[in-house]
Amino acid sequence: MTDLPHLDVPLLQRPDTARLSAPLVSTHPARILMLYGSLRERSFSRLATEEAARILQALGAEVKIFDPTGLPLADGAPDSHPKVAELRTLAAWSEGMVWCSPERHGAMTGILKTQIDWIPLAQGAVRPTQGKTLALMQVCGGSQSFNAVNQMRVLGRWMRMLTIPNQSSVAKAFQEFGDDNRMKPSAYYDRIVDVMEELMKFTLLTRDVSPYLVDRYSERKESGEALMRRVNQASI
């Protein structure tokens, strides 16, 4: 085996099997933030989100749903805008998220994307999304499609979230909700239950070790180099 002299071996981390195999201890309810992507008065993405919230609450989670009404376009207002501050506070509070968007023109909506765009990768020493779990759902006006969830999966990876494998896509959503705005029993409803159960499992399994799971060699190296530069400058 050839040597790799460029590799900073002391910064490498072998898997911490003791930490990863520690028994699961639930100290508090899982904190889940839910985002939806429509401002319509009878928004099916909101109704699907509310249905998923009921399931999560039945599973023992603490759930908060962000209302995007009044949220400005990204960079269209200062960070101090009340809706921006509310969203960022909820993102920092959460241990997992659910994103639910209608499919519009074969894609997720700008309303959902704007919410994600307002959440930074880092706020000082706080990382609002990194290492947190994420479940994805979409509602369709016609036949079942996966364009929106596929787009959101790319975004989840970019935000360094632990995006769970399962996902939900509700076809002809206008047929799946009754006059009481509750979702009718169906295979689509069963899939949402599956997704929420999986989100809860992943959240409880990873929330206490998420900083360790997303800890990166390249960032440790960069931080070490920055520290050395500051030390050298201070000694001049």
3D structure, described in words:
The structure is a single chain. This protein has 236 residues and is an alpha/beta fold. It has a single domain (27-235), classed as Rossmann fold (3-Layer(aba) Sandwich), CATH 3.40.50.360. It has helices at residues 17-20, 44-58, 82-93, 110-117, 147-158, 187-206, 210-213, 217-235; strands spanning 31-36, 62-65, 96-102, 133-139, 162-170. It has a 5-stranded parallel beta sheet with strand order 2-1-3-4-5, with helices on both faces. The longest helix is centred in the last third of the chain and has 20 residues, at 187-206. It is globular. The mean pLDDT is 88.
In a few lines, what is going on in this structure?
This protein has 236 residues and is of the alpha/beta class. Helices cover 40% and strands 14% of the residues.
Features:
236 residues; alpha/beta; Rossmann fold; 8 helices; globular
Structural class of the secondary structure composition? alpha/beta
Instruction: Report Rg.
Output: 20 Å
Spans of at least 5 consecutive residues with low confidence: none
Q: Choose one word for the global shape.
A: globular
The largest sheet, given as strand count, sense and whether it forms a barrel, is:
5 strands, parallel
Percent strand equals 5-15%
Distance between the termini: 42 Å
Q: CATH class, please?
A: Alpha Beta
Q: Which architecture does the CATH hierarchy give at level 2? A: 3-Layer(aba) Sandwich
- CATH fold field value: Rossmann fold
Number of helices: 8
Q: Which range best describes the helical content: under 10%, 10-25%, 25-40%, 40-55%, 55-70% or over 70%?
A: 25-40%
CATH superfamily: Flavodoxin domain
Strand sequence of the main sheet, in spatial order?
A: 2-1-3-4-5
